[in-house]
Each structure stands twice: as structure tokens, then as C-alpha cells.
Amino acid sequence: VLQRICWAFGQSLQAFSACRPVLCIKGTPLCGKYQGVLLTAVALDANNFSIPVAYAIVECETKESWLWFLRNLERAVVHQADVCIIHDYKKELIDAVEDLLNSRRRQGLKAESRWCMEHLAENFYAYFGDKNLPLSAMVEVTFLRLEEYFRNTGDAANKAIGNPSVSFPERVQDDMNSKMQKAEMHQVLGSEEALFMQQAAAASQALLSCHCRLLSYWG
User: Do residues 43 and 22 lie in contact, with contact meaning Cβ atoms separated by under 8 Å?
Assistant: First the structure.
């Protein structure tokens, strides 16, 4: 009874020696008459084309079967001393990769591993059920950080302007005086005076009296 088998073609190993030292590993269940799991290690060449480096067929995805494949893979690509392994989130695979990396570190060899962002994104979308959520969160965080930056910068500038011990270069002082003269011609409206108009791709209105720290827009 066949339990496990691992193989790699010489042409692929030779090609990998000229590739960046990064391997993506993944397991795929076999369908049909013969059950098991196909394990693969894939690299990318200088043109970003995939190069299948090694394969294995094992009974199932366990820490032992993954570590067995990784050991064989390590022997096959022994000429690459600092290979980085990219993998997904499965616990059995994580434990096997960690064992391999610790072993290499004890031998004084470079060892790195990284998460596969494609799998991470798929799980993120599956858990939250909203592909637009990362973009919305990014926009919100950017808005809040910019708001904090401008507030802190404005406070620091006001303190510096009102501090007689702070001196500015002549060019900066002239520029500030010019802007102050222009500012005297403008009227500052209080937030209780309702609405202002924002000019963007489309005109919209926003309440100045909003206290949620995020402006709500409507057309």
C-alpha cells in the first residue's frame, strides 16, 4: 500500500537555483478513486512565471506528513541556503514549518517564513462577509490620523507664533505675515451656523455641528 511519495524533476531544481529563494507550499485534496493529499512547492522565476519545484502525495495533512515533505524539499534544494517559505494558516503546516525553521537556525542557516496574503484575504472576507470593509476601514483610519495630525500641527504652530522666544527665518516670517494679511479679510463662522458647501467630484453638504468625528455627507 502506497503511503507517501515525493518527487522533483531535475529541470525544475536546476531552474530554481536561478530563481529568487522563495517557495510557496500548499496542499490540495485528491478527488476520485485514490484519496490523499497532493503537496506542492512552487517558485517564481524572473518573469513571474510559476515553476513547480517539488511534489508529494501523502495520506492526509498532518504535522508529520508536512514535516516529511519539507525535509525532502530541504534536501532537494540544498544549494539554496536561505529559502523563505510562504504558507497558509493551517495549524499542522504552521507547526511543521516552525520545526523546520528551528532546526535550520540551530545549524546556523537562515530561515524565514511568511503568510500567504491571498489565503489571509479569503479568510478575512469569509469571516466578515464584506469585501469593501478593508477599504472602508483604511479610509476611516486615514481620515482620523490626518485629523489628529492637522490638529497637533495647528496647536504646535499656534504655540510657536505666540511665543516671543521662538524666531523664524526671514523668508518664513514674510510668508506668515502675507498669509495673516489675507486671513484678516476672511470671516470665521461658528459651527452653530449650520451648513457649509464642499466642492469635490459632486457638491455635498455637511453638518459642522457633528460630534462623531466623522463628517456625514448627503447630496
Answer: yes
List helix spans (H) across the chain.
10-16, 63-76, 91-106, 117-128, 133-161, 170-183
Q: What is the DSSP string of 125-172?
A: HHHH--TTHHHHHHHHHHHHHHHHHHHHHHHHHHHHHT-TT----HHH
CA gap 123, 119 in Å, rounded: 6
Residues 6+ positions from 155 with CB-CB distance below 8 Å: none
Give every strand in the sheet of 22-29, ordered side by side: 5-7, 50-58, 37-44, 22-29, 84-87, 112-115
Backbone angles phi, psi at 43, to 5 degrees: -120, 170
CA distance 151 to 155: 6
Q: Is the pLDDT confidence value at 215 over 50? A: no
Q: Is the pTM of this model over 0.70?
A: no
**Domains of the chain by range and CATH?**
5-128 (3.30.420)
**What confidence score (pLDDT) does residue 108 get?**
78
Q: Residue 15 in 3-state DSSP?
A: helix
The C-alpha atoms of residue 178 and residue 100 are separated, in whole angstroms, by 66
